[in-house]
Please model this.
Amino acid sequence: MPRRTKKLRGSRTHGRGKKHGRGKGCRGGHGDAGMHKHKFKWMIKYDPDHFGAHGFYRHAQDTEPSTVINLDLLVEQLPAFEASGAAARAGQGWSVDLSKVGIDKLLGSGRVPIPLTVSVASASEKAIAKVAAAGGAVKTPANK
Model:
């Protein structure tokens, strides 16, 4: 035993006062205790960003949404696409390059009454099936 302990036997606090020798009492609490109370000035000086949210987590996903068009809207827009140079008549049907008008994906909603040959970055399976059923084809980078 250290000599001071023997000397202080019988003393309730061993010369440390009421809370100094008990648990985390000497330092004013455990962890972040007192950050809005007695450790507030310490927090302002040494840890000013302690409270509040800081930034955000950017998930791994596309930052720009893709531009899409449905089949029925595509058929309606054929004259406008022809005027802009993105579409041309090809025999009975049409040949359309959707990348020239800034459209990334072809979706399968609507009917296709005429044969279409569509060049696009991506297309849904339903759109490819409907265009093929009408006697046309969809050309994507994956199936060229």
Q: What stands out?
A: The two ends are 87 Å apart (CA to CA).
